[in-house]
Amino acid sequence: MGLPAGRDVTERSREGTVMALRDRLRRLVQKPGSTDLAPFRAVVADAATREERVRALSDAELTAAAGALDGNDPAELCALGREAARRALGERPYDVQLLGTLALLSGHVAEMATGEGKTLAGALAAAGYALRGHRVHVMSVNDYLARRDAEWMGPLYERLGVTVAWIGQSSTPAERRAAYTADVTYAPVSEVGFDLLRDRLATGPGDPLQPAPDVALVDEADSVLVDEAMVPLVLAGASDLDAASPRYADLVRRLRPGLHYATDEEARNVQLTPVGARQVERVLGVDLYAPENLDTLTAVNVALHAEVLLHRDVDYIVRDGRVKLISESRGRVALLQRWPDGLQAAVEAKERLEASPSGEILDSVTVQELIGRYPVRCGMTGTAMAVSGQLREFYDLGIAVIPPHRPRIRVDEPDRLYATTEDRDTALVEEIVEVHATGRPLLVGTRDIAESERLARRLTRAGLSPVVLNAKNDAEEAEIIAGAGALGALTVSTQMAGRGTDIRLGGASEADRDEVAALGGLLVIGTGRYHSSRLDDQLRGRGGRQGDPGGSVFFTSLRDDLVTHYAPDRHYKGPADADGRVHDKGAHWILGYAQRVAEGVSLEIHRNTWRYNHLIGLQRKDLLAERDEILKGDLAARTVSEGAPAKYTELAGTAGEQAVAEAARQLLLFHLDRRWSEHLAFLADLREGIHLRSLGRGLDPLVEFHREAVPAGKRLSAEARTRALKAFESLTATPEGIDLTGASLNRPSATWTYIAHDNPFGTLDDRAFRGLVTLFQGKHRRP
To answer: Is the Cβ–Cβ distance between 487 and 512 less than 8 Å?
Structure first.
C-alpha cells in the first residue's frame, strides 16, 4: 500500500524525480478530459519538505497539529497524513497516493490502478474533509468493504483526531444514529439510501437518523455512479402477497419455441404466436384479448417472460428457497434486489417457490438522486476515464488519472478471435491446459455463473482441478482470491473476480513469488468481451498489480452474444485458420463495433431514464420541503387553524393548542405520505403506457409524460391538505388529549427496503429504445 516505515530520504527523493518525469510524459499523451496533475504535484513536493519536521512531533502534537489545520494548506495535511499513516498503519503513503488524496479533496474522481492503495488515499481525503469541518460519508458497494475499510483505517483516523464509524445491513437504529454522528461514516450506498427513505417517513422531529448531506466519497465510483445510477432503492409497506398463479407458470412451461412463442434477435422480448394464443385460450377457457381479460393476458405474458428470458444461474440463482438476482456488472449476488413485483412473483412461481412479500411503494430514490443530494462529491476507481463523459454529464465530476507507483509491465495481448463459439472454447481449453502445465497461475473470467460452471466441468474432464468463484460461493471469495496468484493456481471466476482485493503473486508464499514472476506472473484470460470495455479493463486489472509481471488475453468469437445482439447485420465471410481462428482486421473491427454500440445504447437508456426521473425528483424535493416544515415547524397548526377555524377552537379549548398542533402534524404527514405513494403508482402506470399512447399520434413520449405528470404533482399538496382537513373535522378531544383512532391513520404494519432491479425487458418506453441499436449502428459504421 505504501513505503515501508523506514525508507530513507534519498530513496524518497529518487521516487519524486522519477514520478515528475513520468508525469510530464503522461501529460503529453494524457487522455482528453483528465485533470492536469501539475498543481497536485507541487503540493506533494511541498509536503515532502515538511516531512522531517512533522516526524519529530510527538503523537499528541501530531493530533493537535491536525486539529489546527488550515483548510487552505493541503501540503500540511499531506505531511501530517503521511506521518499519521506511517505510525498508525506502518505504511508511508506513496507520492501517487497523496496525488489521489488531493484529487479527491478537489472534488474529482481519482482513477488509480488496482493495488495502488485507493483505500488509504480515500481515508486521507476523508480525514482532510473532516478536519475542514465537513461530515463525510464514504460509500462502498457492500457491508464487507464498509466494515473492513473503517476498521483498517481506524488507527489512522484516531491519530488525526477524526472519529470514524461504519454501518451495515444488520446495524440497529441506535447503531446507525451513533454512526452518523461520527466525522467519517463508512456504509454501503444502499444502506445510506434506505436510511434516507426511512427518515422521509419520520413522524417526530427527533426521529430522522441522518444529518444533512455534506460530502460523499464513493468507492468503485464507476460501478456506483454509472452502472447502478438509475437503480431505485425502495421503501415498501406491507400489503397482500403479490403471488403469481402457478397455473400460468405450468401453462407456459409446456409451450414450444417457434410454434407457440417467438423471441426477438436480442432475446429481450417474447410474444405468443397466433398458435400459442389459441393454445393458451383453450387451456384457460377465455378470450385473451377481450377487455375484461386484460389482467389474464398480462399474467400470461409475464409468466412467459420469466420462463423464456430469465435464466437460472445467469440472471439469478436459487438459494435458501429464495430467488437471488445476479448483478450483471459485478457477477455477485445483488443483495436485497428484486424485479418489479409481478415479474419477481412469476420467477418464484416458475421455480415452484413460496412467494416473497410485496407491497405498495411508499417512496424510492435512485442512486444518482441520492448522490446528487451531496453538495460535495468525489470518488475513486480503477476505471473512470471510460465513463468520464457520463460522470461529468450527470454529476459534474472531472477525472484525475493518477499514474502508478511503478510502471505497469503487464502484457495485454490482442484478442484471439474465432469464427464460432465452439472453435473459441476448444482453443480456450487448450491454452489453459498448456499454460497450467508450466505452473503459471491463471485467472479465467467468464460472463456468468452458468458459463463458469460449464468451463470448470470441461477443464475437469481435461484432467485439471479449477477453483470456481461465482455468486454461488461468494462467501469464500476472499479465501479464493488470496490464493489466485499462487504457483499452479487455476481460478475460474465470474466478473466478481475479487474486485476490491489484491491478488498477490505467489499467494501467501513469499518464497513462490519469484518463481511465479519468472513464469510471467498472473495470466488473466477472458472468455469473451463484456458489453462494456470498462468491465474488460477491470478483469485485466486483476493482474500486473504494482508493477508485477502479468498478462491478459480475451478469447472471443463472431458468434458471441455481444456480436449477435448488437451487430446482427454484420457478417464476416472471410477466411479462418484450420482451428477456426480469424486474423482479419475487419472481423476484429466488428467485435469492437458491437461493443461500442452496446455502450452507446446503455448511455442513451441512462439518459432517457434520467429524463423521466428528473421530474419525479423535482416533485419529491418540493414535497419534502413541505414535509420538513410540517415536521419541524408550525405549518400543520396554521393549516388547520386557517382551514377549519371553528374546529380548531373547539379542540384547542378542550385539549390545548399543543395537542391540536401535534394531531394536525400527524394528519398532514399521513395524508401527504399517502398522496405521494399514490402519485408514485400513478407515475409508474403512466410511464409504462405513455409510449403506446403517443406513438400513433407521432408525439414525444417524454413530453406527453410531463404533460400529465406536472399538473398531477401540482395538485398533490392541495389534495393532501383537503383530506387532512376532512379528517380533522372528525376528531374528538378530551382534557387528556385528542383521539386520532377515528381518523384512519393506518400506516403500514411493516415496512422493508429493497433494490428494484430494472425490468430486464424494460418498460414499454424502454423497449422502444431497442431501435437505438439501429441508430448507433448508423453512427459507428466503418468508414
So the answer is: yes
What's the pLDDT score for residue 6? 42
Confidence of residue 681 (pLDDT cuts 50, 70, 90): confident
pLDDT band at 428 (very low <50, low <70, confident <90, very high): very high
In sign, the C-alpha dihedral spanning 713, 719, 723, 724 is positive
Residue 578: phi and psi, rounded to 5, are -60, -30
Q: Dihedrals φ, ψ of 536, to 5°?
A: -60, -45
C-alpha cell at position 211? 444529518
Q: pLDDT tier at 269 (50, 70, 90 boundaries)?
A: confident
Measured CA to CA, the distance from residue 508 to residue 629 in angstroms comes to 58
The confidence band for 489, taking pLDDT boundaries of 50, 70 and 90, is: very high
Rounded CA separation 53/455 (Å): 58
Contact 370, 613 (CB under 8 A): no
The whole-angstrom separation of Cα 512 and Cα 506 is 5
Under 8 Å between Cβ of 397 and 413: no
| Cell reading at 189 | 450506498
Give the residue carrying C-alpha cell 530513507: 8
- Short-list 594, 609, 610, CA closest to 773: 594
Is the distance from CB of 110 to CB of 102 less than 8 angstroms?
no
Q: What does pTM read for this prediction?
A: 0.81
Judge whether residue 44 has pLDDT over 50. Answer: yes
List beta partners, residue 554: 526
For the residues of 311-335, what is the DSSP string, one character each?
-BTTTEEEETTEEEEB-TTT-SB-T
Three state DSSP letters for 651-689: HHHHHCHHHHHHHHHHHHHHHHHHHHHHHHHHHHHHHHH
Give the model's pLDDT for residue 503.
84
- Max Cα distance, the chain (Å): 96
Q: Which grid coordinates are listed for 657?
A: 393548542
Residues 234-257: tens digit of each pLDDT: 887 765 544 567 889 999 999 999
Closest CA to 285 of 235, 253, 317, 247: 247
Q: 46, exposed or middle or buried, with CB in 10 Å at 0-12, 13-18, 19+?
A: middle
Q: Which residues contact 601 (CB under 8 A, 6 or more apart)?
A: 566, 769, 772, 773, 776
Alpha helices, DSSP H only, in 56-161?
59-67, 74-89, 95-105, 118-131, 143-159
| Residue that the C-alpha cell 398480462 belongs to | 298
Would you place residue 357 in the very low, low, confident or very high pLDDT band (cuts 50, 70, 90)?
low
The answer to whether 196 and 138 are in contact (CB under 8 A) is: no
